[in-house]
Write a structure and sequence with these properties.
The protein is mostly helical. It has one domain. 60% of the residues lie in helices and 4% in strands. The protein has 13 helices and 4 strands. The longest helix is centred in the N-terminal third of the chain and has 19 residues. The two termini are 14 Å apart. About 2% of the residues have low confidence.
Length: 277
Amino acid sequence: MGLLSTWEFEFFKAFHLLRDGTQLPMKQDPPTGLTKAETRTFIEQLRRMSPNEYLLTTRRLAVYFGERGDLRRPPNPVERWWAEEQRDQEIRSLQNMHRSYLILTAAARRKIWADLIRADTYAALRKACGRWARLPDVRRTGLTPFPGHVLENAAQFLAMKRNKRFPRSSYGDDSRIEYLARGMAGALCGLSPMTAIERLRNMKHAAGGPFWITNYGNRPLAENERYCGCWRCSIRKSDERSKMWQKWYENGLKAFMEMARTTKVPTEWKTAHFKSQ
């Protein structure tokens, strides 16, 4: 299940980057009311922050606003990735505040995504994947192998889309990303895509699940501290913290930046290890 979930995560990022230009779903609106000087200052401060600093500041702010949390617990790899991607997304959002969005670029990449979804022949799929692989940010982030993975498993990819379970609603684009990411994970793990889709969809995220965390290093966690360490749960928890401090503070970014100035990442975070059941 570990390898299957890992490939699901990688395709989730690759498909999101293709469609949206970011590996994380865009869930936050850009902050408002900032001057150009404040915007420049915040961009520079964010650029200097490590993923660990960004994550710890997010946790500190959540605790400040009343949420229970363990500030000592080191982040797992997915949480670190979330923090890095969220930080970079915040930088892009700030950079776009005082200039128009690159509408043509967004439209072009969404057309590639739409063509990938509509492709019903190998020729059409190859054309869409070729354009996908040439996107500058796909090349920059090292995700160029993923169009190749799709082409190498073209028969299974096309069969997945012909299956009656494939989300066809005009509102089902996010579901299509999840469906295809799970199916492609199966293809790369030597499983039937439909088998992989069902296994990942039905995976248990509570006690007894494959990623249930019970120990921090050699220290057993209390019952109320145990959690699912899969990539989905890690991202969801981080997103919930981020939403919470934005909701309770009119200008959450200012509060975040103020708290970031006093954030000190513990040394042990660099060597943390987690154990599951």
